[in-house]
Amino acid sequence: MNKTNFALAFLAVAALAALPPRAHADSIINVNVNTSAFLNEANSEVIFEFSDGDQSFSSNNTATLTSFNLGGGALGSVDPNSGGPYTGDMSSTLSLQDGTPITAFGQFFTPGSFLSFTVDLTTNPDAGSTPDEFSMFVYDPNGNPLAPVTTDNPFGILLTADITPTGPVQDNYDPNDVTANPAGAPAPVPEPPTLMLAATGLLELLTLSTFRRRRGAAQDNAPTQGGGIAGA
Predict the structure, then answer these.
(1) Inter-CA distances, 63 with 79, 96, 157, Å
(2) Least confident segment among 16-20, 165-169, 198-202
(3) Which terminus, N or C, of the chain has the lesser number of Cβ atoms within 10 Å?
(4) Is this structure's pTM higher than 0.70?
(5) Where are the domains of the chain?
(6) Spatial distance between the Cα atoms of 82 and 108, rounded to a whole number of angstroms
């Protein structure tokens, strides 16, 4: 198990959570990720996260993922460090709620040529200026992200969807490998307020610290990948 995957994902969400909501909403229906760059690399990992924008932990939104297709790949075990209110896994239906600062779910897999699924987001905007946000990451066994690492995307996010008053708004950080239909066009992003960024960053660092301690404790007892579920 690679120790960096969840740490990178948490840091990415910490950076994004302080950004104000974008305009021109468009809900995500079908997602397809080209995973051929990681073809047959056992113990790669998919991570989905759902962050609570106003930190009220009201569980007012849910991301429901269904119709997973691994493109000839195989599923492994759920990452034991997954946490927050979620049910199910990628073998059937996976549901995440925003009842904690960040609900994080990871599952190991052996990638095929693609990974596709459907995500349905409820559309209940939070009262504050920071929206609830769904995000996705894919890492190889060494913790390298599938998405190109750039100045604007240092942690390898593939896709996000913010739940704004006008509906879900997606950002595709790797359009060469990811398609999401219907596709939404992101608006320019203004600078986040300094105070909001600092407060959000502190919360995320505290959460990350707790999560990394738990991950370290689980590392020695973590199950190896096995009992794979073949992709369609």
Answers:
(1) 19, 5, 17
(2) 198-202
(3) C
(4) yes
(5) 4-230
(6) 11
